[in-house]
Design a protein that fits this description.
Strand order of the largest sheet: 1-2
Strand content: under 5%
Helix content: 55-70%
Number of strands: 2
Number of helices: 15
Structural class: mainly alpha
Number of domains: 1
Radius of gyration: 20 Å
Distance between the termini: 38 Å
Order of helices and strands: HHHHHHEEHHHHHHHHH
Length: about 350
């Protein structure tokens, strides 16, 4: 918004030239969302405690200590993340960008779905919210719509093509199947972050790391000079998503201030479904879907652990892990929560470096 408002005034006020620079607006978006989160976080958490009473319902079949240590902690902290993220994005992004609107609306749509799920859990005082099938149908519909929108924004054959990292000239034409692939990426990323969100701070830091990597990717891919130098597939217009990613980083850091162990608030499905959806949509827009699977490898492993557990249990009646997702397995083995969380953060950072390496290896 500020970029659009200041453009006509640049000739009269040279200082406003700063708003033309993507790097300046990205940094400003990060700081704005961080300040908003820190400023309104305490008030918001107090309000959540007052209206939610007993807080997020705890699964009785989960780790035993959760029934004691996490009882009474409010949920729906994702509202704080999404509010700071959306306000900051609207302030600092170029609102003429269709990519920004596609990702922003998809994120808020997934967040609204998560909000309904959290509300049902609270109103019923149960850990069961919307049916899994119902959530998947809504997620698929929103993801398909966003994927079609992104496809139409990306002109030419690139709009329906799938890129492979490392191989600079490989474009796999998917045609009308591209929206389905994009939908699967968004839906998968959304649910992967949701499954990872089980310990204090566990999901938000890898999300911040992923957002930082994709802020850089969006900036490079959207700039023809840098894209040509690094032999990346240039996608005109996606550079503006760097501002959106930066807003997500700031909002995530602000939330982490309150979600660090012991958490004062949980993000709930409101946050986890939205954050995963945002990462998926950004990856589809910048044509780096495979890199998301690398950088967000922690989310992938957590999801795969659940799939393996369910499949093997139904087939044999035995469990591969003491409990799934994987972080609960280590809890059952006696690892302390901060140990699990910090070690998973380290793994996420290593995966981010590997993902960044794909930008240079050609």
């Amino acid at each position: 918004m500020l970029f659009n408002l200041t453009r006509p005034l640049v000739d009269d006020f040279s200082l406003l030239n700063l708003f033309r620079y993507l790097t300046f607006r990205s940094g400003a978006a990060c700081m704005t969302s961080l300040v908003l989160s820190l400023l309104f976080g305490p008030m918001f958490i107090r309000w959540l405690k007052r209206v939610q009473g007993s807080g997020q319902p705890i699964r009785p079949d989960g780790p035993e200590r959760h029934l004691i240590e996490k009882k009474g902690t409010p949920t729906m902290g994702g509202v704080l993340i999404l509010s700071a993220f959306a306000i900051s994005t609207l302030l600092w992004a170029d609102l003429r960008s269709g990519y920004v609107w596609a990702v922003l609306l998809l994120t808020l749509g997934y967040g609204a779905l998560g909000f309904v799920d959290d509300y049902i859990k609270l109103s019923k005082a149960s850990f069961r919210g919307l049916s899994g099938r119902g959530k998947l149908i809504v997620q698929a519909g929103l993801g398909l719509g966003a994927a079609i929108w992104i496809m139409l924004l990306t002109h030419g054959p690139l709009g329906t093509s799938f890129t492979i990292p490392v191989f600079k000239e490989v474009l796999i034409p998917l045609g009308f199947a591209f929206p389905l692939v994009g939908m699967v990426v968004m839906l998968g990323a959304s649910n992967a972050v949701n499954l990872t969100d089980g310990l204090d701070g566990l999901a938000i830091v890898p999300t911040i790391i992923c957002a930082a990597v994709f802020a850089l990717i969006a900036y490079l891919v959207g700039n023809k000079l840098f894209a040509d130098y690094l032999q990346l597939t240039h996608v005109p217009g996606v550079g503006e998503l760097a501002v959106l990613c930066s807003a997500l980083i700031g909002a995530g850091m602000g939330f982490l201030w309150f979600n660090a162990p012991p958490a004062a608030v949980f993000m709930g499905d409101t946050g986890s479904l939205a954050l995963g959806g945002a990462l998926g949509a950004i990856a589809v827009a910048v044509k780096h879907e495979v890199v998301l699977a690398i950088v967000g490898g922690l989310f992938v492993v957590e999801t795969v652990s659940v799939i393996i557990q369910v499949f093997w249990y139904k087939r044999t009646g035995r469990r591969v892990f003491l409990m799934a997702p994987l972080h609960h397995h280590f809890e059952k083995k006696g690892w302390k929560e901060p140990t699990i969380v910090i070690r998973f953060w380290i793994i996420s950072l290593i995966l981010a470096l590997i993902g960044l390496a794909t930008l240079k290896i050609r």
